[in-house]
Amino acid sequence: MSRVSVYCGLAVALVFLITHWVVGFIPVGDGAGWDGSVYVQYIELLGQGKPIFGDPYRSIRMSGFLPLIIAAHLGASKALLIWLQAVLNAVMLSIGASLLHDVMIRLKVKQSVATLSIAILACSWMFLCMPMFYPILSDHVALALACVCLWCWVRSYKWAIYILCAFCAWIMPGLFLIPLVLAALPHRSNDTAVIAPNNYKYSFVLFGVLAVPLTILLLQTIYHVPLSAVASHSASINGKTASVDMVLLSACAMLVSLYLIIWLAVRVGLDPATWKSLSWSGLLIGGLFFVASATLMKLSFDWNTGFAGPPLLDYLLYQSLAVPFKPLVAHFISFGPVILLAISACLSWAFGNRRSIPIGLLVVFLAFLPLLAFGSESRQWIGVLPITLIIFAVADYTWRTRVWCLVVSALVLAPAFWLKPSISIAAGTGLGFQTFQWQFYFGRQGPWMSLTTYQVGLIALLAFVAVTVLMRMYSNRCSVQCRSTITN
């Protein structure tokens, strides 16, 4: 690992220290938060050698809190456990930032671009603020593990990736997709998505074959969704998180998202590089590790008793039908504008622009896209953030666009300076989650986002896209003028 990568990690650690001074701990559950209070209770139980009953959904995530369980066994108080996890989060993610910088360098990204990308990552709410403000969550461990997966992949540490296929399933649902796909598509320096430009005929045929039945299935599913459930989803004390008057527009937005995902999947499936890069042995071994881990998980807990997880499909429908493109707005606010540029890079490739995106990253990002397109609770898919950053870094964006992404990332993060006083008032006076004060936090937790926050986020998103497109047009015009001058 280069010295610059280490320096990036140290710089991020310093930023974490400053962030905690700014945001403090969430004033709920003595700093543990809602789910965090439950996790602390379980940590103390396990520290005393007692089992957990009736909560398999959270029980499987306790693997991410092993240091705290040991600390609880040694007699650590609740306050100390919260502080210890905050420190561990800062250390893990600072190391993760160093690993991501090294990943980008090994993918032949310019050092300046790699360093700027780490700065953009450090301006992400999910990466910077949540680990300090709400430390007792397995999300932060999942984010660090995603960084480790990418680093092991780019360095071809195959057995480490296989082990991660088993372990990630115990940290956060869906996280196993990252090591499993990377195990199936190992890194090779010349493996990039280079789909042949003359296979559009087959692409359109396959697109139609997939799009027609999926459209019928989606529309039938939407038809049976009760609008009352959409309107009440995550609403608190007369708060509004949805506008059922726009449900038809929301349904159209879902169809647009579905078609773009299908098109990208078709293009990836018809790309010779996909099958050339596929390692059947890696897929088999990684799959066996995951299946063994999932089987152990299934047998270790009674999934018919207690909380086994939310109804995922129902929640995805409620969130995506709330208002048009609500998930995209939520990800823009939570992850930062880098998510839009990563999606744009992948779609640009799918529509014929030859971008050098490693096929493994393209496929793992595609695996998460259906969840990102229909689910607005960004933290549930937090593992995709490092993937997003690397795709952004390897894409052929201009330096001007990258700096613009950093500026907007900082602006989106700026309300964190008012987080502590606003949430203190909201928690102390029992306000609803869609009030102005609570929205400094819940506005970044997609399902709880108020309509006002959605509107502000949508305006910011459209402004970012508009300026980015203008920059692209200006850059292309300058390139044409330069070529014309050289020719003359």
Describe the model.
It is a single chain. The mean pLDDT is 92. The chain is globular. The protein has one domain. The longest helix is centred in the C-terminal third of the chain and has 37 residues, at 451-487. The protein has helices at residues 3-23, 34-47, 56-59, 66-73, 78-106, 111-121, 125-133, 139-154, 158-167, 177-184, 200-223, 227-232, 247-269, 272-277, 280-300, 312-322, 326-334, 338-350, 359-374, 384-394, 399-413, 419-429, 439-442, 451-487. Helix content is 69%, strand content 0%. The protein is mainly alpha-helical and 488 residues long. The protein has 24 helices and no strands.
Gist?
The protein is mainly alpha-helical and 488 residues long. The protein has helices at 3-23, 34-47, 56-59, 66-73, 78-106, 111-121, 125-133, 139-154, 158-167, 177-184, 200-223, 227-232, 247-269, 272-277, 280-300, 312-322, 326-334, 338-350, 359-374, 384-394, 399-413, 419-429, 439-442, 451-487. The model has no long low-confidence stretch (mean pLDDT 92).
Q: Layout of SSEs?
A:
Elements: H1 3-23, H2 34-47, H3 56-59, H4 66-73, H5 78-106, H6 111-121, H7 125-133, H8 139-154, H9 158-167, H10 177-184, H11 200-223, H12 227-232, H13 247-269, H14 272-277, H15 280-300, H16 312-322, H17 326-334, H18 338-350, H19 359-374, H20 384-394, H21 399-413, H22 419-429, H23 439-442, H24 451-487
Helix pairs in contact: 1-5, 1-6, 1-7, 2-4, 4-5, 5-6, 5-7, 5-8, 6-20, 6-21, 8-9, 8-10, 8-20, 9-10, 9-15, 10-15, 10-19, 11-13, 13-19, 17-24, 18-20, 19-20, 21-24
